[in-house]
């Protein structure tokens, strides 16, 4: 095998190995957190397991503090700035897009069906109150 081809294969293998260790997109996590909090607000008898959201951020290789930043951005946007804190423009845009997507899903499915679906898909992050 020629040195150039060998070098190319080694670089490709290194890129493949590092890409799997990269963080998943934050917008995916932002949507998940907003869904969890929306489930808490919209669905009777549900609470959010905050520490499990923090663990998920770590599992997704997101920077420390991501959960709190996302929580503050959601609170800020959904209270008109009365709670939480405004975050960077990209995160605020992610919250806005996630809000629109969740709103569309809720209207499409109806609130009862939306709640039932999210009780299953968010099982690791929500729990019955009590």
Question: How would you describe what is shown here?
Answer:
Helices cover 70% and strands 5% of the residues. Mean pLDDT is 85; it is low at 12-21. It has 6 helices and 2 strands. Helix 2 packs across helix 6. It has a two-stranded antiparallel sheet with strand order 1-2. The termini are far apart. It is mostly helical.
Give the topology, please.
Blueprint: H1 3-21, H2 26-42, E1 46-48, H3 50-59, H4 66-78, H5 89-109, H6 111-121, E2 126-128
Antiparallel strand pairs: 1-2
Helix and strand run: HHEHHHHE
What is the residue-averaged pLDDT?
A: 85
Main beta-sheet strand count, sense and barrel state:
2 strands, antiparallel
| Backbone CA Rg | 19 Å
Fraction of helical residues: over 70%
Strand content: under 5%
Structural class by sheet pairing and helices: mainly alpha
